[in-house]
Design goal:
The chain has helices at 8-16, 19-46. By secondary structure, the protein is an all-alpha fold.
Length: 48
């Protein structure tokens, strides 16, 4: 039994074509961006 290799970009596109998966993915990205912004803000406040 041979395994067929799929390029990551194609696999990612197929996975994210599911609206529910895409919504969860976008929410995780937004959470990560907000976390980075908060950390940046906290770090700049500590330097003052």
């Amino acid at each position: 039994m041979s395994k067929k290799s799929i390029p990551w970009a194609e696999a990612r596109e197929n996975i994210l074509s599911d609206p529910e998966v895409n919504a969860i993915y976008e929410a995780e990205l937004q959470t990560e961006r907000i976390r980075e912004q908060l950390l940046s803000c906290l770090c700049s406040d500590e330097q003052k």
